[in-house]
């Protein structure tokens, strides 16, 4: 089996950290990214960290002919980690067809190519959003998949179903869906990190941009939830721990240790943190005071979600190693570097 792994969306936040983890483990990586929500600068960051430049193809995965041409150029590739997707919940509500095209046709075209291989391995970047507000906490992989709150969430559910159906009829195709909780943080070198284009959709980039002065204050959406401090609870996982899980999952597929040819794993820390706890952790770990105000609840927000990690711990032999303070400190170091580079470029 070829040591080459295709990583789609490999210049994005989770993708870039996974590329680093794969290269450090000795895999050869080929990245596909159309740069719609990323930057070529990330490639330089990956190279600086690993001293290896992954092959890069600027390809539009929505174009079936381009996908076909890619696999003709790299016939040896039979293992794929698929990150490339649109992921803003609000935008998906406003523009559902863009999300269905971007997140589902791309997946279908990749699977059509992999079906032609003698053996193929596929890891899908899924999300805990498939559970909605779970009936029980912590959330196990057996928790029912609820009706999606947004077209984005729906594409993750449908994506998983497409993969499961493909695995059902093709025993030479093996796949794992990894359901992430809330990835945060950055590489300790501060060479790569989360770089949202436009207004951040996630809590931590909003925190770091507020702390550095890019935004006036942080809005905390509601303090009247049935939690200890009234704010929403989420499971925040360091992106470096998340990246490591992808490497382990890929090795599981390649070494044929999987129990069936389609498996699902939750990736989280197993611990929930409220919005106010995250703010306190940020202030404690960075020494930065954070201006924030409580505003009305945001539509679609659930009260609490955190993972039961037992299956991933036991089956994958994977555990998170990094805590919340460390993740937030690394996100802050990355934010400072981004602003410094922007200031230097403007001079």
From TrEMBL:
Its cofactor is NAD(+). It comes from Salegentibacter echinorum. It is an enzyme of class 5 (isomerase). Residues 6-329 form the NAD(P)-binding domain. Pathway: Carbohydrate metabolism; galactose metabolism. It catalyses: UDP-alpha-D-glucose = UDP-alpha-D-galactose. This is UDP-glucose 4-epimerase. It comes from the Bacteria. GO terms for biological process: galactose metabolic process.
């Amino acid at each position: 089996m070829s040591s080459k792994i295709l990583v789609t969306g490999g210049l994005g936040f989770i993708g870039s950290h996974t590329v680093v983890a794969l290269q450090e483990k000795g895999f050869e990586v080929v990245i596909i990214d159309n740069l719609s929500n990323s930057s070529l600068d990330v490639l330089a960051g990956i190279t600086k960290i690993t001293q290896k430049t992954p092959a890069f193809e600027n390809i539009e995965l929505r174009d079936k002919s381009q996908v076909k041409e890619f696999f003709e150029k790299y016939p040896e590739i039979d293992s794929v980690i698929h990150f490339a997707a649109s992921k803003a919940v609000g935008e998906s509500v406003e523009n559902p067809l863009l999300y269905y095209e971007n997140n589902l046709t791309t997946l279908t075209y990749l699977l059509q190519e992999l079906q032609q291989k003698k053996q193929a391995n596929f890891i899908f970047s899924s999300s805990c959003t498939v559970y909605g507000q779970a009936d029980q906490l912590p959330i196990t992989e057996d928790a029912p998949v609820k009706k999606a709150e947004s077209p984005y969430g729906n594409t993750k559910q449908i994506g998983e179903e497409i993969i499961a159906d493909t695995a059902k009829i093709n025993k030479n195709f093996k796949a794992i869906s990894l359901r992430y909780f809330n990835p945060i943080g950055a590489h300790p070198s501060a060479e790569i990190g989360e770089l949202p284009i436009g207004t951040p959709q996630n809590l931590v980039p909003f925190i770091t941009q507020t702390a550095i002065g890019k935004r006036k204050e942080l809005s905390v959406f509601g303090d009247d939830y049935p939690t200890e401090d009234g704010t929403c609870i989420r499971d925040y996982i360091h992106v470096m721990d998340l990246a490591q899980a992808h490497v382990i999952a890929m090795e599981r597929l390649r070494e044929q240790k999987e129990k069936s040819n389609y498996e699902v794993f939750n990736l989280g820390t197993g611990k929930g943190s409220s919005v106010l706890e995250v703010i306190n952790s940020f202030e404690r770990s960075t020494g930065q005071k954070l201006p924030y105000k409580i505003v009305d609840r945001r539509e679609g927000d659930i009260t609490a979600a955190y993972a039961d990690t037992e299956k991933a711990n036991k089956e994958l032999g994977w555990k998170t190693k990094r805590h919340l303070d460390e993740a937030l400190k690394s996100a802050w170091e990355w934010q400072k570097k981004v602003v410094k580079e922007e200031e230097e470029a403007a001079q």
